[in-house]
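Page 37, continued from 36.
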């Protein structure tokens, strides 16, 4: 039983209290058989007339029953002998279920029923139906929850002043109401979750999330981190060597980061910027700041293609300034990696770039001052936790703190041990504001909301697959004119093998159809060095048409590529399409993204294609995506470790904002109430929330 309950996340009484019904059944009244309406669930009180096992068309139990107004057939396709026994002629029953017109009049298939012994009063509350799991029946769950309602602490965790401010209903009233509503309420109201009782629960859930994340935020600010102040000599040099000027947004964000790095506690900042908004140079500047202040910096990216691109770019930018960049990835020979690791651990090489090989190689820093993660949402939860640990307790980070004074107080020692590196995460998947305010409330957020000048907007076209030939002609023209193109293979989520096969076939077909073009293929199953070789050839325009799976989705930057074709675009998610489209429009040339789709289109696929066709702003696309899919899917499978909000609606901006300000007030003025609230909502679940 405990195991089944755990499967539902039910460990404590508080969990049971917050396990709220999916819907309700009205067993408070009896419907006459004559008044039964097909498809509407109702309760009948009947007497069994007959009961027999029939064998045609298959074995089943059929009971006939009646009340003063008519007859009803009860049909069971699976049944226990005990049920057959209970349905003996003459037995009086209360039966609940949906009727339908059958061959012999009204019937119910698999009704819920209870034998009546003497007079039994009808319940005066609606019957809750809870989310459950195999082997855990409603009656058991109801009993457990009833018991929890009696013995658990239902005290309101919100102080009166706050409750009035947020105009929310009383907690215990709301909880009791939702578990056992009186029969006269509007079921439509509760089921639409617009009832004040639901709103109170939703508010509390958001509040718990805010409390947890804001508390983490405050805790971080009480830890120590190296103060990375610098004269700006190196950063000035880099800026003057660049062929462009920073955009206003880049300057603003850069100032925000400098200000954080100069603080004696660790930065935890999320840098959001649409594809192509120029996050890399901001990262480079931040790393230079760390180096100039006598520390090291690390940059980690989720794929080797992306990490290598960063590595090359940083090497080009920084090596002229006399700054060495170490490179860690699976394709780098072990011997070379070992040598890098040695130099990094001695502090001789100030900057390290890599994939998660950075973690796997257990690269130790002498004085890590700043850790940057690009496209952090692409890493799995486990990897992110590992990286966070590295930043939180890295030996390197610790040793960068001032040495503890000999015979120093215990407090000094503790501060020394708790020293952390500054952390910057970057994401090109814009997160809508309410989502950022809720799930990322433990971070500070910077936004690059301006694209560098001179970008040509990408023209998006929706083309029926039937016109594939025209698209091929277009690819041909673009490449003959010296441009380059991507051809993204259809996504086959169910099977990686099939995905691979399709990519191979697409490649062969396009090679045959475009014999005078140099066609290349890149997919996730290539070895890292093979992948790197293909990408390098594409960068040098030795490959004109690159057939690819979504491995190119993230960060690939080849300005001469001006055309992107995405096959079966209807299978891709919105943010994926947006990311893919962001691979073109990076140079001077007019760029286009052709979305090939196959008929017939489902409703959501159609809605997605319409959104991507009509919008180019990543934030707007993200907002519409959130609306289309809800936050669970939006945040994605990769973060499935995150306990998602069960009750709150993230499109309710006002409530998210209220919860946020209530959290601030609670933490400041009512710390005990904050603790009680967190205990009720998040006992044991907090770690995951912060992953
Ligand atoms: P993303 O934010 O998607 O990671 P990148 O950092 O890869 O974007 O930048 C995209 C391209 O824009 C790169 O080629 C980069 O050198 C260039 N770039 C960055 N900032 C500017 C700027 N201020 N003006 C012109 N080009 C820029
Ligand atoms: Mg990038």
């Amino acid at each position: 039983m405990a195991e089944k309950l755990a499967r539902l996340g039910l460990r404590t009484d508080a969990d049971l209290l917050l396990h709220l019904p999916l819907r309700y059944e009205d067993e408070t009244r009896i419907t006459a058989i004559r008044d039964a309406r097909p498809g509407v669930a109702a309760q009948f009180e009947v007497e069994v007339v007959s009961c027999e096992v029939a064998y045609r068309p298959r074995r089943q139990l059929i009971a006939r029953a009646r009340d003063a107004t008519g007859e009803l057939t009860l049909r069971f396709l699976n049944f226990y002998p005990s049920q057959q026994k209970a349905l003996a002629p003459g037995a009086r029953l209360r039966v609940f279920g949906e009727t339908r017109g059958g061959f012999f009049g009204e019937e119910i298939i698999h009704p819920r029923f209870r034998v009546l012994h003497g007079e039994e009063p009808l319940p005066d509350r609606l019957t809750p139906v809870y989310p459950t799991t195999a082997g855990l029946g409603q009656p058991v769950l109801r009993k457990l929850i009833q018991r929890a309602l009696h013995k658990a602490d239902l005290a309101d965790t919100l102080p009166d002043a706050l409750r009035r401010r947020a105009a929310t209903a009383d907690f215990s009233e709301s909880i009791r109401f939702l578990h056992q509503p009186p029969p006269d309420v509007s079921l439509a109201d509760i089921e639409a979750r617009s009832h004040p009782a639901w709103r109170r629960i939703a508010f509390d859930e958001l509040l718990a999330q805010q409390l947890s994340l804001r508390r983490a935020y405050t805790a971080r600010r009480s830890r120590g981190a190296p103060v990375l102040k610098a004269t700006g000599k190196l950063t000035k040099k880099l800026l003057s060597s660049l062929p462009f000027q920073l955009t206003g947004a880049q300057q603003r964000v850069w100032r925000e980061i400098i200000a954080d790095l100069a603080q004696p506690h660790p930065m935890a900042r999320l840098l959001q910027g649409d594809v192509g908004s120029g996050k890399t140079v901001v990262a480079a500047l931040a790393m230079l700041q760390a180096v100039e202040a006598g520390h090291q910096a690390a940059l980690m990216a989720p794929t080797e293609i992306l990490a290598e691109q960063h590595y090359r770019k940083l090497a080009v930018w920084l090596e002229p300034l006399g700054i060495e960049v170490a490179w860690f990835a699976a394709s780098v020979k072990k011997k070379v990696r070992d040598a890098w690791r040695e130099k990094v651990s001695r502090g001789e090489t100030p900057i390290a770039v890599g994939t998660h090989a950075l973690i796997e190689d257990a690269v130790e820093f002498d004085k890590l001052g700043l850790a940057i993660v690009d496209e952090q949402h692409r890493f799995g939860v486990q990897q992110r936790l590992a990286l966070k640990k590295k930043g939180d307790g890295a030996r390197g980070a610790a040793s960068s703190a001032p040495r503890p004074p000999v015979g120093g107080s215990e407090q000094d020692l503790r501060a020394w041990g708790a020293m952390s590196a500054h952390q910057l995460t970057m994401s090109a998947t814009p997160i809508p504001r309410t989502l950022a305010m809720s799930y990322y409330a433990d971070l500070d957020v910077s936004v690059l909301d301006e694209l560098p000048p001179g970008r040509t907007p990408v023209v998006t076209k929706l083309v029926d697959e039937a016109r594939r030939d025209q698209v091929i002609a277009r690819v041909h023209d673009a490449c003959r004119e010296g441009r380059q193109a991507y051809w993204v293979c259809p996504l086959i989520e169910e099977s990686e093998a099939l995905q691979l096969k399709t990519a191979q076939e697409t490649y062969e077909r396009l090679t045959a159809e475009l014999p005078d073009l140099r066609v290349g293929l890149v997919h996730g199953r290539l070895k890292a060095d093979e992948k790197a070789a293909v990408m390098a050839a594409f960068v040098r325009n030795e490959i004109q048409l690159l057939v690819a799976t979504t491995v190119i989705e993230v960060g690939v930057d080849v300005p001469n590529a001006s055309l992107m074709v995405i096959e079966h675009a209807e299978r891709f998610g919105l943010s994926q399409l947006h990311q893919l489209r962001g691979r073109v429009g990076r140079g001077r040339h007019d760029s286009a993204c052709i979305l090939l789709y196959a008929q017939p289109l489902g409703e959501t696929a159609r809605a997605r294609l319409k959104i991507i066709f009509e919008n180019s702003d990543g934030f707007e696309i993200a907002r519409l995506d959130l609306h289309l899919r809800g936050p669970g899917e939006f945040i994605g499978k990769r973060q499935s470790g995150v306990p998602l909000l069960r009750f709150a609606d993230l499109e309710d901006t006002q409530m998210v904002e209220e919860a946020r300000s209530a959290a601030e007030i609670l933490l400041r003025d009512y710390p005990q109430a904050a603790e009680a609230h967190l205990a009720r909502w998040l006992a044991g679940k907090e770690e995951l929330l912060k992953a």
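The two ends are 30 Å apart (CA to CA). Flag for discussion at group meeting. Residues 208 and 678 are 6 Å apart (CA to CA).
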